[in-house]
From TrEMBL:
Molecular function GO labels: oxidoreductase activity, acting on the CH-OH group of donors, NAD or NADP as acceptor
Source species of the chain: Christiangramia sediminis
Name of one Pfam family that matches: Epimerase
Protein name (database record): NAD-dependent epimerase/dehydratase family protein
UniProt keyword list: Oxidoreductase
Domain NAD-dependent epimerase/dehydratase: 10-247
């Protein structure tokens, strides 16, 4: 049970990231000194929004140049911190070499940060950004679970280097974290396992998240004939940041936390946008037939393999979020609010 000293600085790795930005904002608003570990502190495009937030809050931000693959590169950033939020991780659906571009940075990066926690006196808690991808690969697996619902006890054992390597990287990275955690007694580990994260980015023009490109496709005509009825979980980025914050400062927080507000699918996402944006944008409200996806999917997008379509389209996704609601008192935003706020950012920034 970790009780964190509020006067000490707090480390956030990957501080310019989508989720991390909202977490940094929350910490700054509470008056914390944030040690922001980033690849390039001098990249104004990446850090200007955080500087802007810091100017208007009682907190302060200090940047530290760090690299996931360089052992020891988080030493300065972690100094004097009792609480470490490790959010930095590779997130891409475009890669040539999954081992080199996904697996190694995810696993080595996690090991480097946690081994540094072992060497840094005073660290009491590490909150790791994992993913529901470390729990499952395909929506069809929900049918094989007890009570047909995903829980924190379940681990992904179906992803591989050849199939869904991103999910494989998240699984291996989280397993590595628990392995390192069990070998020491100085700090405890809490993991946040979000489903698909949606919501307004603080730095829209520098956002590369997968959910952001999906959002764009929901409005740019990609799905004007209909969307794949692909079963997913969805959570607001602001709720994910709040989950991290509460996981850091709730002494009794422990283990893994499924962080997912809604059991949904791509067609439902289109429908939430229709009332406000449907007259101006071709948002989908109908499902594409599964047989048609089988025919065209693999040609349209290499990630839409027939196996993926079979296991996820017209399949219900369901996860149990009662643990995070009970332990961390998280209340999830309505789906419509998340989708409308996200889409409005695309419009305001001329991205769509």
């Amino acid at each position: 049970m970790a009780i964190i000293d509020n006067t000490k600085p707090v480390l956030v790795t990957g501080a310019t990231g989508y989720v991390a930005g909202w977490l940094v904002k929350r910490l700054l608003e509470e008056g914390f000194t944030v040690h922001a570990a980033v690849r390039d502190p001098d990249n104004e495009e990446k850090v200007h929004h955080l500087n802007g937030i810091a100017k208007n809050t009682t907190g302060s931000i200090k940047y530290f140049k760090s690299d996931l693959l360089n052992e020891g590169s988080y030493a300065d950033a972690m100094k004097n911190c009792e609480l470490v939020f490790h959010t930095a991780s590779p997130f891409t659906s475009e890669f040539d070499d999954p081992q080199k571009e996904l697996i190694e940075p995810a696993v080595k990066g996690t090991a480097n940060v946690l081994k540094q926690a072992n060497k840094t006196q005073g660290v009491k808690r590490v909150v790791l950004t994992s993913s529901c991808a470390a729990i499952y690969t395909d929506a069809i697996e929900v049918k094989e679970t007890p009570n047909n619902i995903l829980t924190e006890e379940i681990w992904n054992n179906t992803a591989s280097l050849d199939y869904q390597p991103y999910s494989y990287s998240k699984t291996l990275a989280e397993k590595k974290a628990w392995e390192i955690s069990k070998e020491q007694q100085q700090w405890d580990l809490v993991t946040i396992n979000p489903s698909l994260v949606m919501g307004p980015p603080l730095n829209p023009n520098a956002t590369t998240s997968k959910s952001f490109s999906l959002l764009k496709q929901l409005g740019d005509g990609t799905f004007k004939m209909g969307a794949p009825k692909l079963g997913v979980g969805l959570v607001d980025v602001r709720d994910v940041a709040e989950a991290h914050f509460q996981a850091g400062f709730t002494p009794a927080a422990k283990g893994r936390y499924i962080t997912s507000g809604h059991n949904t699918n791509f067609v439902e996402l289109g429908k939430t946008l229709e009332p406000k944006f449907g007259d101006k944008y071709p948002v989908p409200t109908k499902p594409l037939p599964k047989w048609l996806l089988f025919l065209i999917g693999p040609y349209v997008n290499k990630n839409l393999s027939r196996k993926f379509i079979r296991n996820n389209v017209n399949v219900t996704w369901k996860a149990d979020n009662s643990k995070i609601k009970n332990d961390l008192k998280i209340n999830f935003r309505p789906l419509q609010e998340t989708m409308e706020d996200s889409f409005q950012v695309l419009i305001d920034n001329d991205i769509i």
